[in-house]
Amino acid sequence: MTERMQQAIKEGRTSLGIELGSTRIKAVLIDDQFQTIASGSFEWENQLADGIWTYSIEAVWQGIQASYLALKETVQSTYGVPLVTIGTIGFSAMMHGYLAFDAEDHLLVPFRTWRNAITEEAEQQLTALFQYTIPQRWSIAHLYQAVLNRESHVADVAFFTTLAGYVHWQLTGEKVIGIGDASGMFPIDSRTKDFDESKLAQFDTQIAAFDQPWHVREILPQVLVAGSIAGHLTDAGALLLDPSGDLAAGIPLCPPEGDAGTGMVATNSVAPKTGNVSAGTSAFAMIVLEEPLKQVHPEIDTVTTPAGDLVAMVHTNNCTSEINAWVNLFKEFTAAAGIDYSVEDIFSLLFNEALKGDPSCGGLLSYGYYSGENITKIAEGRPLFVRSPESAFTLPNFMRLHLYSAFGAMKIGMKILEAEDVAIERIVGHGGIFKTPEVAQRLLAAVMEAPVTVMETAGEGGAWGIALLAEYLRCHADQPLDVFLDEIVFRDDAGTTLAPLPADIEGFGTFVDRYQAGLPIEQAAIDHLI
């Protein structure tokens, strides 16, 4: 295999995917058999600056360059081959948010991420205007809220985009975006595979009284579907990615995508009636629809696959952050006790304890809200753990509680899809929470009340997913994306499937009732804990 990969590297029969996630930027290089040749990563965190969740542009490029350098050094040390060319490249990142630039390409305000819950007025007005759910994190909600707030920068906006769209633009000079990522900026017309023209016109009419010097279509990126050539790496872009100058320019790039789309690709969930749950700092369930939803539901986004098919998206702003915080606390304890336990060991030990817990968590309650949560109408974050004197406060119950709580808000959204009679034949779990075998997978099956599959490639994540989209462009764009994934990439990876246990379904149902009833406690924490 080493010799085959060496040849693939030398001949450029490779694809590179880089994804900018909430806590990690990861680069993955794959060969023409979709196997990972090398990877590199960079840890980062968002900052709350002046009430806005953001990442600095300097951190964006520091992280991309560091993750690429780590990958490049791994290629050299493992295969003895310098990385000077790549077949195709793709970038993906957290969806939504707001990056706005003036005519001289200057960033007008700090990057506003998906995590911000500061556009409630825009959300309500645009959802009513379009009769189409526009959540607070969508790019158009951020733009419209800035218009409503009469922010001085709005008149100077010449272009706005997502984080993936920004990185791609800087490397290629092309102001384009993949349709999946675009569907989190502004509503998509699934027939034309482009922004919805009627809604663009509605928006322009809506803001006419504010006398802006632009029309919204003019400042949005161009929409592209998977398999389209989205530009080539420029000389300046090559140096931006690899400041050493080793990487050649001219490499084609696939359309930049959002992390929801790459999650669908990485889990073979782009065909109708398939779905996946991606769980990280945030979490989302993506269900590919056979037809549009019958009603507008504020809790449900309608986005698309990278090929442009409609998807119902249940997005929650919070998922694993509170679990990670508790694991770090246990890590501090073991270190203080002189016990040599890695973070991975602690995760495994604690997750397996969760399976020994009471199915309803012994009466415990938590909210892992590091930021606001739109589905539950909570505007700010206050991580919270609550119990009564009668609660069974044990380690297994405590760990099961936090795994349940990570999916609590998601369940509220899934109940809406159940009422819409949305058909689901397969759910695939995806993300770091599934690295410990069986635990999160089994509990998620109870949440979804359906079998959940975890594939061997689940740990590869969205960086592998965008690398697959790059490889799709390189050699396979003559066939539908779902056929490429199902019959070629995942032909031999059926994964492991767990059906929900009746006791777990009942226990989670009891927990979710407690979770919904306790939301005023979370609100009280916001009101009184400063």
Distance between the termini: 57 Å
Radius of gyration: 22 Å
How many helix segments?
Answer: 19
Spatial strand order of the main sheet:
16-17-15-14-20-21-22
Task: Give start-end ranges of low-pLDDT stretches.
Answer: none
Beta-strand content bin: 15-25%
How much helix is in the residues? 25-40%
Short description:
The protein has 19 helices and 22 strands.
Defining traits:
530 residues, alpha/beta, Nucleotidyltransferase, domain 5, seven-stranded mixed beta sheet, five-stranded mixed beta sheet, 40% helix
Q: What would your notes on this structure say?
A:
The protein has 530 residues and is α/β, with parallel strands linked by helices. It has 19 helices and 22 strands. Helix content is 40%, strand content 18%. A hairpin with a 3-residue loop joins β14 (274-279) and β15 (283-288). The radius of gyration is 22 Å and the shape is globular. The mean pLDDT is 95.
SSE topology sketch:
Elements: H1 2-11, E1 14-20, E2 24-31, E3 36-43, E4 47-49, E5 52-54, H2 57-79, E6 88-93, E7 99-101, H3 120-130, H4 139-148, E8 159-161, H5 163-172, E9 176-178, H6 179-182, E10 188-189, E11 194-195, H7 197-206, H8 216-219, E12 222-224, H9 235-241, E13 257-258, H10 259-266, E14 274-279, E15 283-288, E16 301-304, E17 310-316, H11 321-336, H12 343-354, E18 365-367, E19 384-386, H13 395-406, H14 408-419, E20 426-430, H15 439-448, E21 452-454, H16 461-476, H17 481-489, E22 496-498, H18 502-517, H19 519-528
